[in-house]
Amino acid sequence: VWRGLSTIAGSWIGGGANQAAMLEVFQYNPKKFGDMVLIDIVVANLWMAVILLGIGKSNQIDKWLKADNSSIETLKTKVSEYTAKITRVTTLYDYIIMLSLGFTAVGTAHFAGFHFSEFLQENFEVIRNKEKALSSLGSKFLWMVVFSTAIGIALSFTKAKNYEGAGASKIGGVFIYILVATIGMKMDLSSFFDKPGLIAVGLIWISFHAILLIIVAKLIKAPYFFLAVGSQANVGGAASAPVVAAEFHPSLTSVGILLAVLGYVVGTAGAYLCALLMEIASKV
Predict the structure, then answer these.
(1) Rounded to whole angstroms, how far apart are CA atoms 67 and 59?
(2) CA 41, CA 37: separation in Å to the nearest integer?
(3) CB-CB neighbours of 223 under 10 Å
(4) In the chain, N or C: fewer CB atoms in 10 Å?
(5) Shortest CA distance to 98 belongs to which of 178, 152, 157, 147?
């Protein structure tokens, strides 16, 4: 059960890509994983509905938070100017370069992840011993995700970031859906209704998420935009954060994408830590 719950943690700390990563790392039963996915879908989308309803009253919410939303207006202007600067008609050459960068990065991550995993297993007993909590650090898939994320962040500091104007994020989004669909085809969702208690667990988790965000936003006087988009960057990742950001203003879509990518980075470590804590708790 703790392995299944860790996959929900992966989703709610960094989106569906982290959820899939935790499934592969901890090798949870795919049939039971369907229950966990439905919790994510039902509970996370209930919270997203609340977030979207709040956008229509964002000015009143900002007043209650005592937030200065002038930074959002400045952000709209800066992002609009940058987007207009890099946006271009996508050519065949652009598609070839973007796909080449993507597949080269993934191939490099696979190679590095495989050999680094082998190195850890050969040199550290705590990782080689399957009975130890840290044995999951020997997962090749885990290190493939870590290396591919690191390569992506490194490329963002180069001229490759300008391919965002040619639709790089849209291509990346397609592959995220392919990843999630590939995992989803292994699942049996029919058994979900036999375990309604799992929904209660999901509601409790998302309630803590919402309460913590609201308290922090109130304390630091953050605008509702950052509360809403930051929440979805963690709960839904690249699938929903850009959608919520665009509801505030179309030019802010890229901000949602950026926060979602940050959510993936933090989510990989955070979900893995959650899984380790759950494993320890399950043995107490």
Answers:
(1) 9
(2) 6
(3) 21
(4) C
(5) 152
Q: Which amino acid is at 123?
A: N
Q: What is the pLDDT along the chain (284 residues), one digit of tens a residue?
A: 444 444 445 444 445 555 666 666 666 666 666 666 667 777 777 888 888 889 888 889 988 988 887 878 787 888 788 878 888 889 999 999 999 999 999 999 999 989 998 888 888 887 777 766 667 777 787 788 788 888 988 888 898 888 888 888 788 878 877 776 776 666 666 665 666 777 787 788 888 888 988 998 899 888 898 888 888 887 777 667 788 888 888 778 777 777 777 777 777 777 777 777 777 777 66
Q: What is the three-state SS of the chain?
A: CHHHHHHHHHHHHHCHHHHHHHHHHHCCCHHHHHHHHHHHHHHHHHHHHHHHHHHCCHHHHHHHHCCCCHHHHHHHHHHHHHHHHHCCCCCHHHHHHHHHHHHHHHHHHHHHHHHHHHHHHHHCHHHHCCCCHHHHHHCHHHHHHHHHHHHHHHHCCCHHHHHHHHCHHHHHHHHHHHHHHHHHCCCCHHHHHHCCHHHHHHHHHHHHHHHHHHHHHHHHCCCHHHHHHHHHHHHCHHHCHHHHHHHHCHHHHHHHHHHHHHHHHHHHHHHHHHHHHHHHHHCC
136/80 Cα distance (integer angstroms) = 43
| Amino acid sitting at position 213 | L
Q: CA nearest 19: which of 29, 2, 33?
A: 33
Is residue 256 within 8 Å of residue 232, measured between CB atoms? Answer: yes
Residue 218 has which token pair? Answer: 């109130």
Look-up: residue for tokens 């020997």?
138
Distance (Å, whole) CA 86 – CA 159 = 11
Q: How far apart are CA 198 and CA 256, in angstroms?
A: 29
